[in-house]
Amino acid sequence: MIPRIEAHGITKRFPGVIALRDVSFDLLPGEIHALCGENGAGKSTLIKLLSGLHPHGSFEGELLVDGKHAEFRGIRDATRAGVAVIHQELALVSELSVAENLFLGSEPRRGPRIDWTALREQARSLMARFGLDLDPDLPLRELGVGQRQLVEILRALGRDSRVLILDEPTAALSETEARLLHATLRDLRARGVACIYISHRLEEVLALADRITVLRDGETVATLAGDAATAPDLIRHMVGRELSELYPPPPASRPDDGIVLSVRNLTVAPDRSSAPKLHDLSFEVARGELVGIGGLMGAGRTELLSHLGGAWGLRVRGDVLVAGVPTAFRDPGEAVAAGVCLVTEDRRRLGIIPEESLGFNFSLSSLGAVSRFGIVDARAEATRNRTLFDRLRVRAPDLEARIAGLSGGNQQKVLLGRALLARPRLLLLDEPTRGIDVGARAEIYAILRSLAAEGCAIVMVSSELPELIGMSDRILMLHEGRLTAEFDRGEATQEDLLAAAMGHPGRKEAA
What CA–CA distance (Å, rounded) separates 21 from 379? Predict the structure, then answer.
């Protein structure tokens, strides 16, 4: 069988670094070929070559499409050859309709005007071919993230794309939306469409991929059959060493008991004119305990953490006590002063200041600790930051490096470090490993276990069920802002958690 697209002996150089070194890769018709590797392994560079963003002449080696030599001078050439990329940040227009987005730039026309009747009919026909039942006049903004992603995939297919490149497609999807996407990709595979699938979620890679290629440090280290590969195989190839325990075991005993967080009958609304998003929540978190929060998108997980961290919501009723003291934080600064630190899920938009240095981002919340009479002691700040830099094993040249140039895993370590400098008694983590490679995940998991062993109470929201099961001492599941189930360590399967997330707890209902 002639591959749909091939790359032979690809070497790509940037000033001072070789991003790809003699990499070869091929994709067969009707195949899902996963591309795995740690951040910085070369995945993004390879995808940019295959999609024309790095044009012919900027790299060594050869590209072939359907067995014929190809020279992509830009993205338009790759598109003409049938190659489409579905990025994490979807290239759609929220204010336009589904039909307008499906044919954006290629609308049927009657003279100079768009033929709206033909546009709707073509949209219905395209969606019907792939089993998507949406009103073509529906504004895109009214769709969930998963449905928007399907619209972008259909837009590519409507342009006769034969190769789809999907970059972390489930990073922002709920479990249900991810399953729908996977079902769609399997259907496309059966129709002969070839897919390159990039994901840090090894469980879904193993369930979906026909073949898996692993890159490390810009080189191809393995190509494995999907049905023969295992997670330990992939991890070993990705990091170059064994990770015998991705999730570190909990300590034999926790620090002396003491309730750090007590939530009683909590009901919270966005504002005075809106209906509550959280309803009658009650739970406690002890010193040294790591409690996981799960649920589908829109279940209220982020709203709960944001409210506890002083960043969101009007409390309608209920109480929140921190170390026995009633609290009603008006902003995150008040929360930090009380020993409660929130690490946001959106590190790029709400967490880091990308143009500033790593050290600057470390110190944002705790300059008062190294200041006297309003003047920062630069030497004390640098010493403190260097100690944290070494403890967290941040991979960067030095503290003066721009944080925007760091990988996602190292940016997340900086956010954790910023929280640690505030000496929290309660740490609130919203999707702490989203978009982070497996090696960095293992390091972050070890850091969290170490913090818990020192007595810090941790509440962690995660969309990844294996992560909830592997890291949590207890798991609380939310559905439509209500607590539906609670599981102690070792009690829950992924099926149990998914059922509870959908409002149908099968085993242990919340009290």
Answer: 41
Q: Is 405 left (phi over 0), alpha (psi -120 to 50) or beta?
A: alpha
The strand order across the sheet containing 426-430 reads: 340-343, 426-430, 457-461, 290-294, 474-479, 482-488
DSSP 509: B
Domains 5-239 and 259-354+407-501 share a fold: yes
Cβ-contact 484, 511 below 8 angstroms: no
Query: In tens digits, what is the pLDDT along the chain, a chain of 511 residues?
Result: 899 999 999 999 988 779 999 999 999 999 999 999 877 789 989 999 999 999 999 999 999 999 999 999 999 999 999 999 988 667 889 899 999 999 988 899 999 999 999 999 999 998 888 778 889 999 998 887 778 888 888 888 888 899 999 988 887 777 777 888 899 899 999 999 999 999 888 888 999 999 999 999 899 999 999 999 998 888 888 877 655 567 888 887 776 779 999 999 999 999 888 889 999 999 999 999 999 999 987 899 999 999 999 988 889 899 999 999 999 999 998 999 999 999 987 776 777 888 889 888 888 777 777 788 788 788 888 888 898 888 888 888 888 888 888 877 788 888 888 888 888 999 999 988 877 777 778 888 988 999 999 999 999 999 888 899 999 999 999 999 999 999 999 898 888 998 898 887 755 556 5
Q: What is the DSSP string of 440-490?
A: HHHHHHHHHHHHHHTT-EEEEE-S-HHHHHHH-SEEEEEETTEEEEEEETT
Q: What is the CB neighbour count within 10 angstroms for residue 262? A: 18
Q: Which DSSP string do the residues of 127-165 spell out, in sequence order? A: HHHTT----TTSBGGGS-HHHHHHHHHHHHHHTT--EEE
Which of 357, 306, 230, 324 lies closest to 459 in space, CA to CA? 306
Question: Strands 194-198 and 68-70, how do they pair?
Answer: unpaired
Three-class SS state of 406: coil
CATH architecture of 5-239: 3-Layer(aba) Sandwich (3.40)
Q: Find the helix or strand (DSSP H, E) in which 182 lies.
A: helix 175-190
Distances (CA, A) of 475 to 139, 183, 204, 453: 37, 28, 22, 18
Locate tokens 């589904």: which residue? 98
CB–CB of 40/219 below 8 Å? no
CATH of 259-354+407-501 given 3.40.50.300, 3.20.20.70, 1.10.10.10, 3.40.50.10860: 3.40.50.300
